[in-house]
């Protein structure tokens, strides 16, 4: 029979000490692994607008001036790694993708980004001179000046652009809000409105076009009127889109209040600060096709039954008329029919 021994307090203390040491070692190993993973994910360098003296940090560049002038600013490159970094700098045009996201043109004008017929914009006005390639020593911050030359024939308004820094296969962009002096115009239109989907999955698709020369932050409201009165639409809300001048984007708006059975007239109203409201209308039929198919099958069956009953009634009437007139006379026993010619017989 096995004997159970009760551990002494000294043994318990040694065991607790060993367990605590193991936990501490595992925690240190996990922290080291997490630190190594974070270091692996760390890009090792950053690009941002250079701060001037006690001025606060800037999230982007803002430059403005009349056409024909040269504007100046500075980009700060910080190498946080233990090795030298070679950074390539360039200017790029900013634009909206088809779904409204912001993007920049590629470095090569012959790339696919130019196949949309776009012409060089404000990105080509940015120049780093001879400093298009900069070597930044380890743990060092380098400040690189650049210029923006506004062409004499540049149009008034905002010209979105960006400064792009590239190193070790990674790109970092800093937006450039550039405005050429002169009259500004805020204008937009909403086009190509239609409904896609049914029920809770219904969405309203539409296209927004910025026809002015300033960046717009649009808001949208949806109003719906059905055969049975007003249908729940969508109250005005800000869209997660920054619409650049001259750009066109295709968006969708969820419509959880879409009816199940109705004919609805939709009115979309889009507003933006400084711009007159833009509206567009569309009509949509909402039919529960499953119920409609079953109803159609039922009506078709009912129509078949009614037709069969009608044919049966007509057949019975025809038999009743034959019985009332007596037995039919065979064709060979019928009296000859006389031709009415006016001659005496």
Describe the protein.
- It is a single chain.
- The chain is an alpha+beta fold.
- It has two helices and 18 strands.
- The protein has helices spanning 9-41, 289-324; strands at 45-49, 61-65, 70-79, 85-96, 102-104, 126-127, 133-136, 140-149, 157-158, 161-167, 170-180, 188-196, 203-210, 219-226, 229-238, 248-254, 262-272, 275-286.
- Among the domains are: 45-180, Immunoglobulins (Immunoglobulin-like, Sandwich), CATH 2.60.40; 188-289, Sandwich (Immunoglobulin-like), CATH 2.60.40.10.
- The chain is elongated and about 115 Å long.
- Helices cover 20% and strands 39% of the residues.
- Strands 2, 4, 5, 7, 9, 10 and 11 form a seven-stranded mixed sheet that branches.
CATH names the topology of the domain at 45-180 as: Immunoglobulin-like
Strand % is 35-45%
Please report the number of helical segments.
2
Proper CATH architecture of the domain at 45-180: Sandwich
User: Residue ranges: pLDDT <50 for 5 or more in a row?
Assistant: 1-7, 18-26, 31-40, 289-298, 337-345
Q: Whole-Å distance between the termini? A: 146 Å
Residue-averaged pLDDT: 78
Shape: elongated
What structural class results from the helix and strand content? Answer: alpha+beta
What topology emerges from the helices and strands here?
Blueprint: H1 9-41, E1 45-49, E2 61-65, E3 70-79, E4 85-96, E5 102-104, E6 126-127, E7 133-136, E8 140-149, E9 157-158, E10 161-167, E11 170-180, E12 188-196, E13 203-210, E14 219-226, E15 229-238, E16 248-254, E17 262-272, E18 275-286, H2 289-324
Parallel strand pairs: 2-11
Antiparallel strand pairs: 1-3, 3-8, 4-5, 4-7, 4-10, 6-8, 9-11, 10-11, 12-13, 13-16, 14-15, 14-17, 17-18
């Amino acid at each position: 029979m096995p004997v159970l021994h009760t551990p002494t307090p000294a043994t318990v203390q040694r065991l607790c000490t060993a367990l605590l040491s193991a936990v501490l070692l595992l925690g240190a190993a996990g922290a080291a692994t997490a630190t190594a993973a974070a270091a692996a994910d760390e890009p090792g360098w950053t690009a941002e607008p250079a701060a001037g003296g006690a001025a606060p940090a800037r999230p982007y560049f803002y430059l403005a001036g009349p056409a024909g002038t040269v504007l100046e600013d500075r980009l700060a490159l910080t190498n946080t790694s233990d090795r030298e970094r070679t950074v390539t700098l360039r200017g790029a045009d900013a634009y909206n993708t088809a779904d409204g996201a912001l993007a920049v043109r590629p470095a090569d004008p012959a790339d696919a980004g130019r196949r949309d017929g776009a012409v060089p914009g404000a990105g080509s006005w940015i120049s780093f001179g001879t400093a298009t390639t900069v070597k930044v020593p380890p743990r060092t911050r380098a400040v690189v000046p650049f210029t923006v030359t506004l062409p004499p024939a540049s149009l008034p308004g905002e010209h979105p652009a960006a400064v792009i820094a590239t190193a070790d296969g990674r790109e970092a962009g800093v937006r450039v809000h550039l405005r050429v002096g002169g009259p500004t115009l805020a204008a937009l239109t909403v086009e190509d409105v239609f409904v896609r989907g049914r029920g809770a999955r219904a969405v309203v698709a539409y296209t927004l076009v910025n026809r002015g020369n300033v960046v717009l932050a649009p808001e949208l409201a949806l109003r719906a009127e059905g055969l049975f009165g007003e249908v729940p639409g969508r109250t005005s809300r800000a869209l997660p889109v920054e619409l650049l001048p001259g750009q066109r984007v295709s968006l969708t708006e969820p419509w959880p209040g879409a009816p199940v059975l109705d004919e609805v007239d939709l009115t979309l109203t889009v507003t933006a600060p400084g711009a007159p409201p833009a509206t567009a209308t569309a009509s949509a039929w909402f039919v529960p096709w499953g119920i409609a198919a079953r109803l159609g099958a039922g009506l078709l069956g009912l129509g078949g039954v009614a037709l069969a009953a009608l044919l049966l009634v007509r057949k019975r009437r025809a038999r009743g008329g034959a019985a009332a007139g007596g037995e039919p006379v065979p064709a060979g026993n019928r009296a000859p029919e006389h031709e009415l010619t006016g001659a005496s017989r």
